[in-house]
Amino acid sequence: MRDKNGRAVRFVGALMDVTAGKQLRDQLSHSQKMEAFGQLAGGVAHDFNNFLTAILGYSDLLVAEIQGRGTGAKYLSEIRSAAGRAASLTKQLLTFSRRQPLEPRVLEVNTLIHNLERSILRLLGENISVLCELMREKKHIKVDPEQFTQIIINLAVNARDAMPAGGTLVLKTETISTNGKSVPELPSGKYVRISVIDNGMGMSEEVKERLFEPFFTTKDDRHGSGLGLATCYGIVGQSGGHITVESELAKGTAVHIYLPEVAAPPAAAYRKRPKLPNGNETILVVEDDISVRHVAVRTLRMLGYNVLEAFRADEAKRLIENTAINLVVSDIVLPDMSGCDFADWMRINSPSTQILLTSGYLPEMTTIGTPSSDLPFLSKPFDPQQLAETVRASLDAVVLT
User: Fold this and answer.
1) pLDDT of 25-81, one tens digit each?
2) Structural domain of 26
């Protein structure tokens, strides 16, 4: 508005706060990205599970052949151990891709941190050193290991971004007792405190106040969704704990995670690895991955079974029509049809033959058919022990019914 001389004296207009709409758009965009990444992770994990099935299988077969003696057996044991750790990683990828809550377990906290140390070093780069200051005594917490991993990785990545010129990240564990006043958000009791400390650029008081708000981030749109610390806060809260932050500009940041201390689980009694169950029935292995098929066939033949093999479902159908087969071990994902549809065909055309389905995907993740709840399922990667026990249980179930 202007006065009679044309001079601007007042502004009249309307303002609309679009913050909520922008947050919703950002949330939708992030959700779509996570969905796509979840599908990619599931596919990568499926392929790796096939590789790991072959590595685990042949390692166990070789150990059995050389009877666990000599330097070669030691090397094979290391190969198998590495494959087992890789299988754990693919399980995490599959778990992420199905995005379902997991069961918490009682775990020793120093072991958790020690196992993560190598991964964090790869994440942070060569210009950042990682120091572990772990308490001497073994203390236990009840937490989901995958979710705990997510927390530490999120905090480590934030610390890396706060130290662009390099620095030091300290992972520290200790026990504390609260009386309801030292940490007001926590009830009185004993807690394990896990601290992630960096000597980076630190944060202002204004940033600290909004640190755990969903979609709040100090990074640009290409590098931050604002969900990392909010997710950490939610996971810690669901585990009965609390998370606090100490930080000053140019003096670094310390994030403290408090989780209730719990009693150690009872020590598992040592059990000698049982002898693989054997048999003499006829088994058909249907698998398009040649490495997985060969290791399964060789394992079952070593156990005394009469084993046939097929690459596709149509090959398997011809064998079933001409041969009496007790059990079919079939992958769910086949080149010409799904293992679930193949199982339906068998129920009509060979109802006396039992079927065992396998897959590198989780059962609920397959998009080309869902296995019936009454069909046995063996998840990849599997080792000879798991294959032998599941096959024997499937065959014995036929006898019992």
Assistant:
1) 877 776 676 667 666 666 777 778 888 888 888 888 887 787 767 777 778 888 887
2) 19-98
For helices 313-322 and 339-349, angle between their N-to-C axes, nearest 10 degrees: 20
Q: Which of 262, 294, 328 is the last residue of a domain?
A: 262
Give me the sign of the Cα torsion angle 142, 380, 82, 77.
positive
Q: What angle do CA 124, 203, 218 make, to 5 degrees?
A: 70
What CA–CA distance (Å, rounded) separates 208 from 193? 20
225's CB contacts (< 8 A; 6+ apart) are 26, 30, 215, 217
Contacts 24+ apart (CB under 8 A), 179-185: 183/242, 183/244, 183/258, 185/242
Tokens of 181: 């006043």
Q: Per this entry, what is the length of the chain?
A: 401
Over residues 96-125, mean pLDDT: 74
Distance of CA 156 to the CA centre of its chain: 18
> What CATH number does residue 389 fall under?
3.40.50.2300
Domain C-terminal end among 232, 262, 292: 262
CATH number (domain holding residue 197) = 3.30.565.10
Taking the C-alpha atoms of residue 226 and residue 224, their distance in angstroms, rounded to an integer, is 6
- Domain count along the chain: 3
**Domain identity same for 111 and 233:** yes
164 Cβ neighbours under 8 A, 6+ residues apart: none
Strand order in the sheet with 327-331: 306-310, 282-286, 327-331, 354-359, 377-379
Contact 309, 285 (CB under 8 A): yes
Question: Is the domain of 324 the same as that of 243?
Answer: no
